[in-house]
Structures are given as structure tokens and as C-alpha cells.
Cobalt-precorrin-5B C(1)-methyltransferase
Amino acid sequence: MMKKDAPRGTRTGFTTGACSAAAARAAVIGLVTGQVPDAVECLLPNGDLVTFAVQDGRVDGVGGGASAHAMVIKDAGDDPDCTDKAHLTADVRLLPERPGEVLLLGGSGVGTVTLPGLGLAVGGPAINPVPRRNIEANVRAAGASLLDEAGFEVTISVPQGEQMAKKTTNARLGILGGISILGTTGIVKPYSTAAWRASVVQGVHVAGTLPEGVVVLTTGGRTEKFVMEELPHLPEAAFVQMGDFLRYAMGAAVKAGLKKVVIGGMVGKLTKIAQGETITHAGRAEVDTGLLADIAAGLGAAPDVCDAIRQNETARYAGERMDALGLGQAFHTALAQRVIQTLRTRYPDQFELKVLVCDFDGRKIAEAP
């Protein structure tokens, strides 16, 4: 079980996949023994054996027509996850006509996949491959004594899933009607970047299945709103908020075979990209204001202005100084061109590149090429 005395903000939790596997295992135990337990030990994908409390357990029917129901309430630990307290529910039915098989279905509140690119069958439930294997492994372990004579039909549902999904990017990825069953380890780490990183890669792969052949990468909500207004002809699934994860987004674009990559950003993140940073988080590296001073000098800015830009710690300052000289658009255009030069060096001839630059109010300043 989780450590309840962990320092505030560090307490780990469990994924929707782990909770689903625990609920399924408890329901299968109910079919084997005639009673669903109040707690169940479940093997996580990372190899940990964890005890989960089980709610609402019941066994209905007897013999070949028997079914069982169990529910595990997700505890996300200290992670601000919109699926915290979700009721991961498993309904397991015996299939006498299909001995040895485990059939996994999605019920109410589990999303349905409607677009390719997710590594999941279109029309099937949004239960990712690792949780899928983990659920089946737990079902087989708990139900080994019955599998010679029958199979199991396991339906995972989440009563609040449709509402929870509105707080996710599922609809944009073509996952409709509920949440995804996720988790590569079974453990949720507070404020983990892994989930966001994975969603960026997933989003780029979905964009790669669209006929437009373009992905639009942005650094946040403001820049995404800006590029959506600039490129209204593109479907929503073409836009991916990459945040700081440029390297993962670009790698996914290469893998997806995209013909064009558009990057929307503001001066700070774009400077990080221009200077060669592939993870643009503020804590990873300082902004190279020397690069900005060189751009300013190339546009004819006076030496004292260039020195001031070089000695300041922020990219925003450089933009404001150049704006004051009437060189703001030229400066941001030159910066966008530097971004393209840097990315072309790393990804030569792999896709057409375009950079759109907005100010801190989300208004367009420049673009390149």
C-alpha cells in the first residue's frame, strides 16, 4: 500500500489501469470462490504486488451463467489528476463456450477509439496495451482453475468517465465517450511529466493519420489559441500542445512521417529552441541572451542596446527593446528563422518547417519562412 506518512505533495497513487486490473482480479476471485473479497492483491506492470480495497462486490448466478462485479476507487496520491476518485469497475462473465480465452471490453465511461494512430483498434475501447496485458495477467492468475472449462469476458467501466473525459484531450485524439485506461507502471507520480510527454507523442501520431499531413506544435494554451486562429482550416487533431517536450514531439513527427511541422511560440521558448535546447523547461538551461544580442546587432541595433540585451536574463527584454526601436517584427522574424536553421540541422530534409510568433497577449508578431 502507499505510504500515508509521505511528505505532502510526494504521495504516489495508482493508475486507472492498475485499479481496473485490481477490480477485474477481485471479480474473478468472486467467480472462483463464490464471494468477491473486500481487498485484493494485484500485480502491477512494474512487478509490485499491491493490496487494493474492493467495493460493491457481488456474484450473480451459478455455473456457466455466473457473473461477478467489483469496483476499486482510484487514489491518485498527490497528483492533481482529473480521474482521482474514479470508480474503476469490472464486470466479469463466464464464457463456457470459449475456454481459455480472456475477452476485454469497454463499458460505460471508457472511451471508444475513433481515429487511427493510437496503437489501438478503431471502434474498440481506449484501454492502452500495457494495462490491457496487466488486466489479462491478473485475470488469468486469479482464474486459472476455471480457464480449462471456460473463458472470461471482462468489461471495464467508469461511471463518471464521460464527465471526467471533458477535462482531458481525449476528444481531440478521437477518443469519445469516456476516459482512457492508462498506465505503464501502475504507479502515478505527483506532477509527473511522463503522462504529458506520452500524450504529446500520442497527439503527434494522431495528427500523422490526418490527410493534411501537418502537425502544429505549441508551447501552451495561449500559443495554441493563437495558431488555431491563424490556421482555421486545420482540424483540431492537428494541434498538439507540446509544452517543453520539443524533442519528443519532433521525434514523433519523424516517426509519423509528417510532411510539415508548424511551431507556434513566444520569444522565450523560441530562443531556447534556436539555441539548440530540446527540452525547453525554464529549469533546464538559461536563455542565451547572447544569441538575441547577435540577432539585434545584425539588424543594426546600437552597441549599447546589444550589450543591454546580452546582460539581461530574459528574452522578453530583448523583444521589448527591439520593439522600442521599431525593429520588433524584424527581430522576431529573424529569431523564427534561427529556430528553423537549428531544427533543420537536427532534422535535415525530413519535413517542411514553419514558425509562428505571437506576443504575450497572443497577437501575431512574425512568421518564418
